[in-house]
Design goal:
Helices cover 37% and strands 17% of the residues. By secondary structure, it is α/β, with parallel strands linked by helices. Helix 3 links the parallel strand 3 and strand 4. The longest helix is centred in the middle third of the chain and has 13 residues. Bound molecules: 1,3-dihydroxyacetonephosphate.
Length: 241
């Protein structure tokens, strides 16, 4: 059985006060959530410790949005695995398209970060996906296969989550057709040595489409941006039917 992982990516949203306000609304929503669903909140660094202390050891796991490959060093603006695990972080998003697009993340640095995350006991959520131009040019599969081939070198596939996030569907309201997301995720799985890696879909997931997304046989969860910022909408997502 593959694990179901429902993760919120808060990106660069929420002060500590706003994070606390979210949790006060959200934690009480989880009483109905089936235990086999792993719920993850990937919050800004400044909110990690606060969120960690307010999870009450419950169903929610703490996630970060980046990790460096060294244990420590002169790397201004970066954060290391031990710094994250010290405050209770269990998951970390790596290779998100926003980091690849705006912060010079390459498949080489993604690979270094993935290996470091696992070395320090974190479960990486590796993001892959194509641009609109690549999709229109019929390059979706080749691009994703190339990302996987480079990103996963020497990565332990028993401690890994992958998120298929078509870049054109992120923050646009333009969700990928669920059957198409299911098809691409099946192709991603065919390239893995461990077929049990949970593979999520990400890109404009919201309360209105979560049931349809999760009904797809290859899709093992979702990585949610905008709709994870409001407790009511994330509640509906984690409690999909
Ligand atoms: P949206 O859900 O806002 O489209 O963002 C998706 C995403 O980038 C999650 O990592």
């Amino acid at each position: 059985m593959r694990k179901i992982v429902i993760a919120g990516n808060w990106k660069m949203y929420k002060t500590r006060a706003e994070s606390l306000e979210f949790l006060q609304g959200f934690m009480s929503c989880l009483t109905e959530t089936p235990e086999e669903r792993e719920v993850v909140l990937c919050v800004p660094f400044t909110s990690l410790e606060l969120v960690s202390k307010n999870l009450h050891g419950g169903l929610v796991r703490l996630g970060a949005q980046n990790v460096h490959w060294q244990e420590s060093g002169a790397y201004t603006g970066e954060i290391s695995g031990p710094m994250l695990t010290e405050v209770g972080v269990r998951y970390v998003i790596i290779g998100h398209s926003e980091r690849r697009q705006f912060f010079g993340e390459t498949d080489e640095t993604v690979n270094l970060r993935l290996k470091a995350a696992q070395k320090y006991g974190l479960i990486p959520i590796l993001c892959v996906g194509e641009t609109k131009a690549q999709r229109d040019a019929g390059e979706t599969e080749a691009h994703i296969f190339s990302q996987l081939a480079q990103d996963l070198v020497d990565v332990d596939q028993t401690k890994l989550v992958i998120a298929y996030e078509p870049i054109w569907a992120i923050g646009t309201g333009d969700t990928c057709e669920t059957k198409e997301a299911n098809r691409v995720i099946g192709l991603i799985r065919s390239k893995l040595s461990n077929p049990n890696v949970p593979i999520q879909y990400g890109g404009s997931v919201k309360p209105e489409n979560i049931d349809e997304v999760m009904a797809q046989p290859e899709i093992d969860g979702v990585l949610v941006g905008g709709a994870s910022l409001e407790s009511a909408s994330f509640d509906r997502i984690v409690n999909y039917k």
